[in-house]
Amino acid sequence: MNQMTRDDPLEPLGITRSDLAPADFRSADFDWTGLGVHFVQTPCDRHFEIGYSALWDEFGSKNEMETRGVLDRRLGWRPEKPTPAGYALRYEMIVVHRDGELAAVRDHTAIVDVRRPERPCVVHLSHLLIAPPWRGSGLAGWMRALPLYTARECLRRSAQGPRPITLAAEMEPANPAEAGNIGRLIAYEKVGFCKVDPTRVHYLQPDFRNPKDIDASGGPSPVPLSLVLRRVGREDDPTIGGGELRAIVESLYAMYAESFRPQDLRPNFESLHHYPADGDAIDMVRPSLVPSPVVSNGRGDRITLADPTTSPARPST
């Protein structure tokens, strides 16, 4: 059942059909013939230049891409040497190519709190780019499964036992007025990702600007984003506990703390004070769901208004 097509480069990594997201079953028969999968190990690796250039061209102008210096340092993270705060980190950039041409590239970081074995291994999903000729081929499903290998390696190399794995993506809030926005979010929800109810939790991504620009503007301006999760094996759970959510966000901020100045992350850590209590249950909703506006009727009642943008949305073409 777990055998894949011939020349499958993922088989030695232990990545099998069972690791595909529930809706990625169409990727199971993807033919890997002629494709190479390269894990970038150092900034001097020529595949790093190939992968970084492709990601920068796609995401750099949107201020959604870290600088080369940040990724240089991340490539130096070793799970065997946890951070002073007690987190094992493993960053990977993975380049898939055929005959010298880029087919896909992704990067992500596995994060393990070695002090608290009850917490999940969190994988921060940074970027994923599929070259146009390979879109719709089934390759994307396997690119979405590769972070599971990184998570297991991080656990193994930090001498931790098996743990639940959560894939975490920071995504723009649902906005039907922005071209492509709803389409991107629907792509995630189709493969088992759910969004933490943004009316209950206001997640903040750090300010990615150059420190000089941050100082010149008077301080950091963290970016409000939606937290979109795939809790592997629990994709259908309708809620998430406040304690589990806090563990996930603290892991993400601990990763950022290795690359950002403490003062630039202060608003992020302070935002945790407003998170739901550990015992609270927070709804997990469709990533493409647009929250309905809530207003007061003047008598202290809060009324949810019908929002026409919540009608069924289709990806933009």
What would your notes on this structure say?
The protein is of the alpha+beta class and 317 residues long. The chain has one domain: 3-Layer(aba) Sandwich (Aminopeptidase). The chain has helices at residues 46-59, 68-74, 139-157, 181-189, 211-216, 242-257, 262-271; strands at 36-39, 87-98, 101-113, 121-130, 165-171, 194-196, 203-205, 223-231, 239-241, 281-285, 294-296, 302-304. Strands 1, 2, 3, 4, 5, 6, 7, 8, 9 and 10 form a 10-stranded mixed sheet that branches. A hairpin with a 7-residue loop joins strand 3 and strand 4 (121-130). The longest helix is centred in the middle third of the chain and has 19 residues, at 139-157. The chain is globular, with a radius of gyration of 20 Å. The model is unreliable at 1-6 and 294-317 (pLDDT under 50).
Taken as a percent bin, the fraction of beta residues is 15-25%
Low-pLDDT windows of residues: 1-6, 294-317
Pairing-aware structural class of the strands and helices?
A: alpha+beta
DSSP, total strands = 12
CATH class: Alpha Beta
- CATH architecture classification name: 3-Layer(aba) Sandwich
State the CATH superfamily name: Gcn5-related N-acetyltransferase (GNAT)
* Succession of helices and strands: EHHEEEHEHEEHEEHHEEE
| Helix percent band | 25-40%
CATH topology, by name, is: Aminopeptidase
- Report the average pLDDT across residues: 88
How many domains is the backbone divided into?
Answer: 1
Q: Tally the helices: what do you get?
A: 7
Radius of gyration: 20 Å
Q: State the end-to-end distance.
A: 35 Å
Q: Note the main sheet.
A: 10 strands, mixed
- The rough form would be described as globular
